[in-house]
Amino acid sequence: MEKEAAQRAVANAAKKKKAEERISNALSQNEAILHQKRQDFEEREAASEVRRREMEEERRAADERKRAEEERQQAERRGKYELSLQREEERKQDIKGRAARKQQLLDEADSARSSANSQRRVERELFNGLRRDKVDSIQKMQAYQRQLLLERIMEENEKTARMLEQRQAIQEQRKSANMNASMHRNKARGRWGGDAAHCGPADGVDA
Asked: Basic and acidic residues bias: where (predicted)?
């Protein structure tokens, strides 16, 4: 009886030792898995932070480019406006000069009415002046219409550029939201996997 009891004790001790070894191995494996998952998570977090900083830098650079472009366009519009004012003043002065010249011609025509040759010369100068005025008026009107068309085209281009920037910003926001959702899913999978691995060895001990 004592011998059988001793043998059972030895057998139980061996089983207990094997069970403890399985538990120890399982704990070591679980710890290694958790360490690897923690390291993977930290690497993903670091990569996400790097990407976030890159996107922030890109956004700051885009804002700076946009601000510089707006300042350039504003300066360009201001220059065009000042140039149009200058041209308008020159046109007024030109009209005044031509009016004075016409008045002078009329005065000369009145004073030289007695001379047929002088009268024809004055009339010819008046006719030529009117013709030049008409041609000049047509050319200035065409230039003004071209300027209006160019400004409309520039406004349409600016609207299109703003729409593209807004679309790109929306796409970046969606991309960031998808990245965050993916990170949350990976975190959830990591917690679930850790619990499953911890419970597995315990079942083996009971067997």
From this structure: 37-97
